[in-house]
Amino acid sequence: MSIISAKMLTKVYAGKIRAVDNLDLEIEPGQIFGFLGPNGAGKTTTLRMLATLLPIDSGEATVAGVDVRRQPAKVRRHIGYVGQFGGADGLATGREDLMLQGRLNGMGSSDVKKRSEELINVLDLKDFADRKTSTYSGGQRRRLEVALGIMHRPEILFLDEPTTGLDPQNRANLWVQIRKLRDTGTTIFLTTHYLEEADALSDRVAIMDHGKIAAQGTSRELKQQIAGDSVLFSFKNDGKTLAKAMKLFKQQPYVREVTQEGEQVRLYVKDSASALPDLLRLLDKENIPVKTMALSEPTLDDVFLRKTGRSLRDTAANSKGNGAS
Amino acid sequence: MKVLRDFTLLFKREFIHALRMPTWLIVGISTPLLYLALYTPLLQKLAGGPGFPTKNVLDVFLPGMLAYLAFTSGSSEGYGTIFTLKDGQIERLRVTPANRVALLLSPILSDIVWMYIFIAILVAVAIPFGFHAHVTGLLISLILLALLVIVTGAFSVTIALLTKEISTFASIVMGISLPVLLLSGVLLPLSMAPTWMRVIAHFNPLFYVVDANRVLAAGTIWNSTVGLAFVVTAGLVIVTLMWATRVYKKAVA
Question: What whole-number distance in Å separates Cα of residue B104 and Cα of residue B186?
Answer without folding.
Answer: 29
